[in-house]
Amino acid sequence: MAEAVVNLLVLKIRCFLVEESWLLAAVRENIEDILKEFERLRSFVRDAERRSESDVAVAIWLKQLQEVAYDMDDIMDEYTYFMAEQKTRGFRNCFAKALRINPFRGVTIRLKHMKSMTQDVSERSSRYGFDYPWSFNVVRERPVDTSRFVRVDTDVVGMESNKQVLISWLTDEAEELMKICVCGMGGIGKTTLVAQVYRSLEAKIHFDFQVWLTVSQTYSIAEVLKSLASEILINKDNVLKHMNTMDTRILLEMLRQNLLKKRYLIVLDDVWDTSVWEEIRFAFPEDKCRSRIVFTTRNSGIATLLASSHCVFEVKPLQCDEAWALFCNIAFRGNSECSCPPEFEDLARAIVNKCHGLPLAIVNLAGLMKKHSRIELNRVLNSINGMLTNVLDTPVIDILMLSFHELPYHLKNCFLYCGAFPESYKIKRKRIVRLWVAEGFVEEREGMTTEEVAEEYLNELINRSMLQVTKADDGGKIKECCMHDLMRDMAISISKKQNFFIMCEGHEEQLTAAARRLSIIEVSDSIKARFGRISHIRSFLVFSTDARTLNQLVALRFRLLRVLDLYRAPVESLPNAVCNLFNLRYLSIRRTKVNVLPKNFGRLQKLQTLDLQYSRVKELPRMTELLDLRHLFIIRSVDEIGLSVGMRTPGKIWALKDLQTLEGIVSNNKVVQQVQNLKRLRSFVILEVKMFDGEALCASIEKMRFLNNLQVQAMEGEGLELESLASPPSQLQKLFLIGHLQRLPRWFSVLNSLKVLRLRSSWLNEDPLRSLQSLPVLVCLELHKAYEGEKLWCEVGGFPSLITLRLIELSQLNQITIEEGAMMSLRELQLSRCRELNTLPQGIESLTILQKLSLEEMPEELLQRMRPNGAEYHKIRHIPTIDRTPIDDLI
């Protein structure tokens, strides 16, 4: 960790010297001298970290180095804080100069002391004879393709026989409700195995309902019930809206009634005790419909208590040949046979054997291999083997530590930061990227935004199996990821030792004043009073606590704070003291009850991200001083018919020329003209657009040459006039238009980078498939009330990249024709509420890789033709997953 701290400090000092160009000569000289010392120290700090594992003296020296680096970081941030504070007082000319003396004097004294300490640490380094950079990855890593993540199919290795056993239990003829427990140690592959079974064709065909719930050690019964309701209840929207005031017994009864006489499969993943089952068991009727409930747990005792007789399945470690196959499948995926070069096989097998058949450990060690050329493999293998030598029973945490130590310094901070989220938490890609940027973890690269660089970091952590993808968006990019609980345990352990963050989870945490970040999951009464001692906090993340405690914490003077993330926190207001956080880069009150921002909000001049999405804030304060603002989210809500409700902005928002994201702005004549000044926009969502403003809006969009996500929503009752967009942004990847179009604009034909297109309430007269089928990289197309015609036709070769097609509420549609050779990449087809469509799409039998067909509120005549004895069943029997919801079931 010292390597990461020192490298980031060097970058920060360089930026500081540039930004504060008018520093007094004595101050600048001291800072430049300190920079030189840290530049020398960072050249061998990685060797020091390697040796610190066996040399106590080196470990002590490293800790002192890190403390000095943190102190220097504090000096620069405090200096920035004081200068910003003085500027807000409004003094000018000589008064302003006089006011600057005190901060300079204090900084000069502290810098002299810091220079002395740095030189002392540097001089003592000569005693240890450090080498220059030691690393597995001496070659600069190849750029990662961030357009799509790659899901490695490692889960099939060594699991087929286990999978078949579980499938046989699920499909057994026994009519009684059967409870199955899958148990085994952490990292053994329980969740992966059950997920394989859950997604299998046998399970899809056998059950009417399937629900997957991740429980984890810190589960909330309210969240469990909410997840069940959202998956099972027909009138779920109304129920979810009133869940906070609904009696639990009533909700359980509703769930039970919806499952009566249904064959269901429920998975409760990562169960730590029996209490969660006791609290929800009433929802699951035992009415002899051959239903099944599957639990996964580390505790064999819990498994015995929960499972039906003889229904405990213990996952064993992989056999030697299975472990080797899994290792090679990842480490040597680049060659045609996924085989290890013969000259390295003995050494590689010895390393795999030390993983004791544990898939998580094998996957992580294999991840160390795949980034290296054949020439480097021998050195890498020997390095790993040396670290594991003489350890007869290597704990998995030690093996995972190898993956952490091998990370480049810039990824170590990013990885540890993910450990500050709760167990099993689904981390949004965009959120974590902006948090990393706000913390200063991301280096600048020419031709890229720091957010784009951060996305490369995220992809790299996933490719190394340090994080796991849990959800992708329609364009195939990572949408959510999570951290395996063993990885999280490791991150928390490292973070505590390095003062990287403190996590409060309800037990007696040791609060150290040197901690740099604070994550609140649950706060015990005994430690509330001790929070005031923490003065160096840079990030404050809140996930769950009571409103009173939260208000007290928010009001604390964490004056060096860079991140204040209150997403979903039970807070109703922001204290005025927030406006004194001059170093704040990131503020989120998304999905809170905050309804107004403090008046002096414009003082937060370093703010980069302001996320007000789905809060109760109705209007923005003056923001023209926030010149560093990059991301502004102001969608207030979504109404009952699915339209977004945005926010009007104060004048001159177009002065914020660094804005990359502007989502939720309400249109008017002035806005559509002036947004052309926001030339760096990547994502733009504009609402309530009037038809006569269309031409001006098109002229502005043409100036946004970096735009990759565009959403335009018409004023209710009006259409969209977008024909005049002569030259659309060449990098546009996502387009969502809501409003009457009548016909597709001509510029659609040149959208060669477009991946996702959603049209809603367009009421087109002409078949849109004929106009769109030549788009080369389109992967998702959604037409929702978008077409008034009766027929859709796709020609041979059309939509070569399309993966998902959704046709929703096309009221006149009665025929779909897909020529053989069209839509050859289609994997998911959804037909919803197309009431005149009584036959399957012609040519659906030629869609040989179609994985899922969903029919929601479709005519009974169509559903009858699809049944096993129906006239068209032969056309769809190759499709693994077919979901049917007839109209009658929803009345």
Name its key features:
891 residues; alpha/beta; 17-stranded parallel sheet; five-stranded parallel sheet; 29 strands; 15% strand; globular
Assembly type: single chain
User: Structural class, judged by helices and strands?
Assistant: alpha/beta
Mean pLDDT: 84
Terminal-residue CA separation: 59 Å
Residues in helix, %: 25-40%
Query: Count of DSSP helices?
Result: 30
Radius of gyration: 29 Å
Shape: globular
Query: Unreliable runs, pLDDT <50, ≥5 residues?
Result: 91-101, 132-155, 389-393
The total beta strand count reads 29
Q: How many strands, what sense, and barrel or not for the largest sheet?
A: 17 strands, parallel
- Strand proportion, as a percent range, falls in 15-25%
Notes on the protein architecture:
It is a single chain. The protein is globular, with a radius of gyration of 29 Å. The protein contains 30 helices and 29 strands. It has a 17-stranded parallel sheet, with helices on both faces. A five-stranded parallel sheet has the order 2-3-4-1-5, with helices on both faces. The chain has a three-stranded antiparallel sheet with strand order 6-8-7. The termini are far apart. α13 links the parallel β3 (264-269) and β4 (292-297). It is of the alpha/beta class. The model is unreliable at 91-101, 132-155 and 389-393 (pLDDT under 50). Keywords: Leucine-rich repeat, Nucleotide-binding, Plant defense, Repeat. Residues 5-92 form the Disease resistance N-terminal domain. Residues 536-855 form the Disease resistance R13L4/SHOC-2-like LRR domain. InterPro entries: Apaf_helical, Disease_R_plants, LRR_dom_sf, LRR_R13L4/SHOC2-like, NB-ARC, P-loop_NTPase, RX-like_CC, Rx_N. It holds the Pfam family LRR_14.
